[in-house]
Amino acid sequence: MVAKKGKQSEIVRGVLEGMERSAIAELAGSSERTLRRRLQEPKMLAAIEDARAHLHGQLLSWLQSLALDALLDVKHVLKEGNDTARLAAAKLLLDQLANHRSVHDAARVLAAELAQLRAFERLEEQR
Length: 127
Hints:
The chain has about 130 residues and is mainly α. Helices cover about 80% and strands about 0% of the residues.
């Protein structure tokens, strides 16, 4: 059996990574014309959508976990931090709640901001 040009897994990966069509075709070992045809096939479209949904689910789980960690960190700072840290944590939390339609949105943004803060703190510790 001859392998089909434009392997599905490489095409799906290239699409999800946002690669240019020429790069996807090269990765899949096919021409751009073949790639265009393959991207119209129902099986290929379903495979891309399935992979996209799987990736979305993984990212959402990661964000939820990160948001929980961030909120626990804020809770710790609110209880145990010095006055300046407690005030900063409270202000950050209230600002996020005021700027977002849902607590979920606020938690996601808060998690991202705290992750940046942690990264900055690690850089400062390495100096």
